[in-house]
Model the fold of this input.
Amino acid sequence: MHGFKDIVAFFETSSLADAIRENDVLFPSIESVHVLAICLVVGSIMAVDLRLIGFASVKRPVSAITRGILPLTWGAFVVAVASGFLMFISNAAKYLGNGYFVAKLCLIGAAGLNMLVFHFIGARDQPRWDSQARLPLAARLAGGISLLLWIGVVACGRWIGFTMEAG
Amino acid sequence: MTGVIVGDFAKWLGATSLSHAIQTAGWVIPALQTIHILAIATLFFSAVIVDLRLWGVLQRDIALSDVARRFLPVIWPTVLVLLISGSILIIGEPRRSLLNTTFYLKMTLLAFALVFTAVLQWSSSAAPEFWEKSMHRRVAARFAATLSILLWCCIIFAGRWIAYTQVG
Done:
């Protein structure tokens, strides 16, 4: 645990973190890029989730949807993580002490876990139902859970801004 | 003159009981902003996925007109959600937006983006091959797609900057 604190302190005292803290334009700009990226991540995931649930694009095979959309999701996710990291190091100790920040990271972790479980267990027999409009329960469940988790991620993200005000 | 009228209106709006109710319940504004961002996510993704198809990137197994038909109509009801959540946010904190140049910049850009989206939707559904007929059309399509992505990016940037450019 000591190691983790040292790493966080290393980044928080870096000149990069200093610049983000001191500069009036830098933080809002990074935050805007973060919002842009999050919107693409969440928007694209919602499109896939709605297909899994059976609410949209039901005539198109699931594999076609994921192939056509997920590259955008991953590209935007990289940008969201990078911009999020920059905001985090500008005030690392305060973020770590913020319940909504910790909750947001946990929800993203849960969404990742949900994706892995679906990918390796729920989607094993995907060729059988890939083109069906109504998917097996496991697929619908994975889509629904993902949808709820990402709505939670956005909510926590917004609540961070209201609970870190004096920073 | 207009400034005085808008200032008076913001003051009156901020004094209404509805505005007070929104201000005193601490959860209302972040909850509305969450809905607002989720709606922006829906809209922005729908616009970008069509713009990327105009560029010839992603979902190339189906026609541009199919992608446009599936995603562009999503934008209009989403705009309604944005207008409603945005309006309630303004009622809660009228000075934050109404006395803020960034807010008017955002609304101007939004008007352009919506007209642009309507034209795109109309052109790609009226004649499915409209943007793919010739080399010129394909170049124009990429130009239009880039402009659309830039417009929506500027709108989202302006939206976040409203928080940093408030007067008083």
